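User: tokens in, sequence out, please.
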């Protein structure tokens, strides 16, 4: 599986913070797929040979006061045919006093990987 970045959608400004959230979600997915040993693997070098591609979007990242709202959508499709085989969506409210948004993003990546693994 090739992982695309989680690009900012209409409710999330492009910038360092959304880039960091994207990286942490990808890290959570990679760490978990490797550990769970599913048939969805992340190739080390030759990504063009992968059968699947994941593309995601940070649809909303809104910080207000001590809270943030993070919504993520994505899809996994077959590279050869372009057929979408999985769609996923999640939304999280983050208490900025007690939670680190990057840690929440990592946990979202882990949850996405578990979703993928449970369907493999």
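Assistant: Sequence out:
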């Amino acid at each position: 599986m090739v992982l695309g970045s989680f690009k900012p959608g209409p409710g999330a400004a492009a910038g360092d913070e959304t880039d960091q959230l994207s990286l942490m979600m990808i890290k959570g997915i990679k760490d978990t797929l490797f550990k769970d040993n599913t048939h969805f693997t992340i190739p080390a070098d030759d990504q063009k040979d992968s059968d699947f591609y994941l593309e995601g979007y940070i649809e909303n990242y809104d910080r207000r006061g001590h809270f943030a709202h993070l919504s993520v959508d994505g899809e996994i499709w077959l590279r050869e045919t372009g057929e979408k085989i999985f769609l996923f969506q999640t939304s999280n409210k983050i208490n900025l006093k007690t939670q680190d948004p990057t840690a929440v993003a990592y946990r979202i990546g882990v949850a996405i990987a578990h979703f993928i693994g449970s369907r493999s």
